Amino acid sequence: MTDVAQNSIRTRDLNLWYGDFQALKSVSVDIPQGKITSLIGPSGCGKTTLLRCFNRINERYGNVTTTGEITILGKNIYDENVSLAELRKTVGMVFQRPNPLPISIYENIVFGQRVHSRRGSMNRRDADATVQLALEEVDLWKDVKDLLKKKATLLTLEQQQKLCIARLLPLKPRVILMDEPCSALDAEGTEAIETLIEGLREKYTILIVTHNMAQARRASEECIYMLLGEIIEHGPTSEIFLSPKNKQTEMYIEGRYG
Amino acid sequence: MATAEAVEANPPVRRDTGSFRLGESLMVGLIYLCGISSILFVLAIFVFVFGEAAPLLWGDYGFSFKEFATSTQWYPSQPSNPEFGIVALFAGTAAVSVLSMVLAVPLGLGAAVYVSEFCHGKRKETLKIVIELLAAIPSVVWGFIGVMVLSPIIIETTGASIGTNILNGGVILALMSVPVIVSVGEDALKAVPDSYREAGLALGASRWEIVYRVLFPAAKNGLLAAVLLGVGRAIGETMAVLMATGHAVQIPTSVLDPVQTLTATIAAEMGEAVEHGTQFRVLFLIGVVLFGIAFVVNLTADVIVKGIKGKQND
User: Fold this and answer.
1) What's the domain count of chain B?
2) What is the reported pLDDT for B8?
3) Which chain A residues in 109-128 lie under 8 Å from chain B, judged by CB atoms?
4) Which of B28, B180, B184, B204 matches a 20 to 30 Å C-alpha distance to A37?
5) The pLDDT value given to residue B189
6) Average pLDDT in the A238-243 region?
7) Do B203 and A99 count as a contact with CB atoms less than 8 A apart?
8) Taking a C-beta distance cutoff of 8 angstroms, is the pair B283, B264 a contact?
9) Domains of chain A (ranges plus CATH)?
10) Is B104's pLDDT higher than 60?
11) B128 and B227 share one domain
């Protein structure tokens, strides 16, 4: 039981193929609850693929085969009776390129609730409150409170990415997956998003894929190094960066590989 | 500096020799001609059509424009006192076009959504080819289907006395417009970035919810343009409606009434009209009216499509 409480995501012997290409090889990992874990590794090592397994969004491509087990909050997400809508409510995702929907800022925030509640069951006042709360939590409210009816795609990239995080919050997710959330942003935007992520820790289990070694180092508590679809090393970030146990990890971290 | 080095390393080949220059300017001239020819053609057609119709308006043909625009009576070949009222013809065109759009828009958009979002691989390719094939069927064949296949079915199921009527023409026109709506609509949906679909999916939306909550708002301009192109096709179509709508100049009161459309009138009566006579010129005036309708529809579609591009640049 304690194991379930401390680890929000655990995989056992997870394999994944795109057609004939094996992208994940026997991945077994425990990702702790309420911490920020970063996934690092060279391009094509499978870190994004692994991330996209956790909300099963990988499956939209027809040629994906998965074997093994993924348990999130004690529930096997490949069970027959798992509803994808429920899974994706619990496990939110932020993408590499900010992708607010081409509707108003307001509608972006309530989109999740509209999808998950019965038609007409949302009342206006609750929705307004939800929008304000979510935007305040990502430090965007003061910037956009007069623009709520404007198209979300008109915001700056940094604001768009904040909005993409904010729209997850009304669904009260337990896990937030982030796929290189800062790679489209400038240094200032990156800092703002990192501060935001830092503020979300403990409330949510956060898993970040990143190419940016420095970001992994300063923003995460645990670190997983992947290479060619396998997990090479997993431990506290400080240990991985100061005294990596594995030679390949050391080479990657020192910039001699990848 | 970098440029200077590059130039030194790769000196440009001299190509400004006489024959090269001649060929070049010849090609430029030819392409220019192709470019402006379409404008010239449209202009020439308009001048021709309007030129044939214009004498009616200021010549002494005993023609009243007011009567033309307001009368429902169309007796063009009456030897004494022929009447040229466009209203019934206009009503015929409107009735058939509206019915065809009521049928074609849901069918066409539904098919576009299916082809673009819900099917993959071989089935998608097959469907697209079949739809293109549907668009390539000549309109006289559609008219033939209307008369020979649809008409008996309509008589049998509705008890109407005549099988060629608004319903028949509307269904035939709908079938002709659907391929246009599907292919343009599918392009519009395909142009929606995949990241929007992923955003919706990751928030727990089902595929259908993504269609109407994400794709429709995102592609609404393109879908509207698709519908308008379908409308254009329906209004301008001649041969099929000539055969399928039953040739009766009247203001229809039910979908089972036969009507006559603007286009069908021109096609049917041009052959028997006395050249440069009143009827001949009135038919050209109907051509001008059709020109106007087509222009308005195309302009609307254009403005909407421009709207898409403008917004993307924001």
Assistant:
1) 2
2) 53
3) 111-112, 114-116
4) B204
5) 94
6) 84
7) no
8) no
9) 2-253 (3.40.50.300)
10) yes
11) yes
Query: Contact B200/A95, CB-based, under 8 Å?
Result: no
B310 vs A contacts (CB less than 8 Å) = none
B81 lies in the same domain as B194: yes
Evaluate whether residue B12 is within a structural domain.
no
Task: Quote the tokens at residue B213.
Answer: 């909550």
**Does B96 share its domain with B51?**
no
pLDDT-based confidence at A5, cuts 50/70/90? Answer: low
**Looking at the structure, do residues B296 and B166 belong to the same domain, yes or no?**
yes
Asked if residue B117 and residue B80 are part of one domain, the reply reads: yes
Contacts of A111 (CB under 8 A, 6+ apart): A101, A103, A167, B200, B203, B205, B213
Residue B67 lies in a domain: no
* pLDDT score at A2: 44
What confidence tens digit (pLDDT) does each residue in B199-254 have?
999 998 888 899 989 999 899 888 988 998 888 888 888 888 888 888 888 888 88
Q: What is the pLDDT of residue B10?
A: 60
The secondary structure of chain B as a DSSP string is: -HHHHHHHHSPPPP---HHHHHHHHHHHHHHHHHHHHHHHHHHHHHHHHHHHHHHHHHSSSS--HHHHHH---EETT-SSS-EE--HHHHHHHHHHHHHHHHHHHHHHHHHHHIIIII--HHHHHHHHHHHHHHHHS-HHHHHHHIIIIIHHHHHHHH--S-SSSHHHHHHHHHHHHHHHHHHHHHHHHHTS-HHHHHHHHHTT--HHHIIIIIIHHHHHHHHHHHHHHHHHHHHH--HHHHHHSB---S--SSTTS-B--HHHHHHHHTTTSPTTSHHHHHHHHHHHHHHHHHHHHHHHHHHHHHHHHHHHH-
A104: nearest CA partner in chain B: B217
Contacts of A85 in chain B (CB under 8 A): 204-206
Q: Does A59 touch chain B (CB under 8 A)?
A: no
pLDDT, position B1: 43
Evaluate whether ipTM surpasses 0.95.
no
CB A141 within 8 A of CB A80: no
DSSP of A22-83: EEEEEEEEEEETTSEEEEE-STTSSHHHHHHHTTTGGGGSTTEEEEEEEEETTEETTSTT--
The domain in which residue B132 lies consists of: 74-313
Residue B69 in any domain: the answer is no
Name the residue facing A102 among B204, B206, B218 (closest C-beta). B218
- CA-CA-CA-CA dihedral for A14, A17, A21, A23, to nearest 10: -40
8 Å CB contact between B109 and B185? yes
Residue B9's pLDDT is 56
Contacts of A22 (CB under 8 A, 6+ apart): A15, A16, A229
Q: pLDDT tens across B8-55, in order?
A: 556 566 666 677 788 889 999 999 999 999 999 989 998 999 998 888
pLDDT score of A82 more than 90: no
Inside any domain, residue B222 = yes
What chain A residue is nearest to B119 in terms of C-alpha separation?
Answer: A62
Query: From the candidates B120, B189, B203, which should be mutated to test the interface with A, based on the most A CB atoms within 10 A?
Result: B203
